[in-house]
Amino acid sequence: MTRPSRQVLPQDALDDTDRAILNALQDGFPLTPRPYDDAAKPLGIAGNELISRLTRMRQIGAITRFGPFFDAAAMGGAFCLCAMEVPEDRFDEVLAQVNAHPEVAHNYERTHALNMWFVLATDRPDGIERTAQEIEAETGLKVMLFPKLEEYFIGFRVQA
User: Fold this and answer.
1) According to the model, what pLDDT value does residue 4 have?
2) What are the Siroheme decarboxylase NirL-like HTH domain coordinates in residue numbering (predicted)?
3) CB 118 within 8 A of CB 105
């Protein structure tokens, strides 16, 4: 498994259409019989091209996932930001172990003593502690929990 945060894309890896896709799809995705066609139309491309471009951006590491974002807490579950101090020589191994958990929403490497950061999203509040304990048992490393105290909305916009 590769580490997305270590990958640096060449300046020309994304064209103007790729950037427009990234910006447009953050604002929603149509729930229609042909959602890719409907999402592609304002971008001036066909639905199959949108799918191809999303696939390519995922393959080159420009995006790590494409899919819905659900508010687990609003549905009776919980979110929690987590961090671990992972020895460099075990990073890829631990990354695979952590990411194997379906509760892991995303995972990032940071240049810090706590070098692995990830978000847990569970269907019940007690799932956070349970999943963190499972990861600790599998990896032999401590999972630090940083529960949400305040809501922030961060958008990722790219320059065209």
Assistant:
1) 44
2) 18-63
3) yes
Would you state the pLDDT for residue 68?
A: 72
Q: What is the CATH number of the domain that holds 112?
A: 3.30.70.3460
Cβ-based neighbours of 156, under 8 Å, separated by 6 or more = 22, 26
Give pLDDT tens digits for 34-67: 999 999 999 999 999 999 999 999 888 888 777 7
Residues 84 and 142 in one domain: yes
pLDDT bucket at 155, cuts 50 / 70 / 90: low
pTM of the model: 0.63
The helix/strand count (H/E) of the chain reads as: 5, 4
In the numeric block, which tokens belong to residue 151? 């809501």
Q: Are residues 42 and 81 in the same domain?
A: no
DSSP secondary structure string for all residues of 61-107: TS-S--S----TGGGT-EEEEEEE---GGGHHHHHHHHHTSTTEEEE
Verify that 77 and 135 share a domain, yes or no.
yes
- Which residue range forms the structural domain that includes residue 105? 73-147
